[in-house]
Specification:
With 208 residues, the chain is an alpha+beta fold. 50% of the residues lie in helices and 19% in strands. It is globular, with a radius of gyration of 17 Å.
């Protein structure tokens, strides 16, 4: 998956606004693993000043309406370096089927196309050429929903491919096919797409 800190997971419980984050997310923010307990205040303090209000609003909707915490924004680590991150999340369900929180991933998409290719293309280059069209379509969907560049969209696809051990071509094709099932509402489009992205491998495996 490239550099260890490029992707990390988190959980957020609605009832007491309690956060858990992986070592990778801690490192993104500039903290050695296990040295800090994440809180809403701490997370907001690391947001880029121009993005902080947007993220605070997204968090408020998460707490008030039970929506997954999803966002594209910048964070500033403890050394002052700026990271461009995408937060992809889904609902977290309790043992009795109740909605208890949101869980997902921070994806650090900072960097250049060449860096992304160096990290991800060694194993996927042959199938990339064989399935360029469907991969480009999936990238286009990611770019539209998340407002990111082609390079960043490719990194997100490559991350899910490696995270789920599903070929890049198959993942892209499944995602493109799934888009037709989305309810066309700009209000919930991001939430629906996050869910499709995080569960595409399950539909591929079910169809195998």
């Amino acid at each position: 998956m490239g550099k260890p800190q490029s992707v990390g997971n988190f959980r957020f419980w609605f009832a007491d606004e309690r956060w858990e984050w992986s070592d990778e997310v801690a490192v993104m923010h500039g903290y050695p693993p296990g040295t800090v307990t994440p809180t809403t205040e701490l997370l907001l303090a690391h947001k880029h000043p121009e993005d902080r209000a947007q993220v605070a609003s997204a968090l408020a909707k998460t707490v008030e309406h039970g929506e997954p915490f999803s966002s594209r924004h910048r964070i500033i680590d403890t050394d002052g370096a700026v990271h461009h991150v995408i937060v992809v999340a889904d609902r977290m369900i309790g043992e009795h089927g109740e909605l208890v929180g949101t869980a997902g991933y921070y994806i650090d998409v900072t960097g250049t196309l060449e860096e992304h290719r160096q990290e991800t293309l060694d194993d996927t280059l042959p199938e990339l050429y064989a399935a360029r069209a469907v991969i480009e379509q999936a990238k286009g969907a990611l770019m539209l929903v998340y407002g990111i560049s082609p390079e960043q969209a490719f990194k997100v696809l490559s991350w899910r491919s490696q995270e789920t051990n599903v070929k890049l071509r198959a993942l892209a094709a499944q995602l493109v096919a799934d888009i037709g099932s989305m309810v066309h509402s700009t209000v919930h489009m991001r939430t629906e797409f996050d869910h499709l992205l995080l569960t595409a491998h399950e539909r591929i495996q079910a169809g195998s």
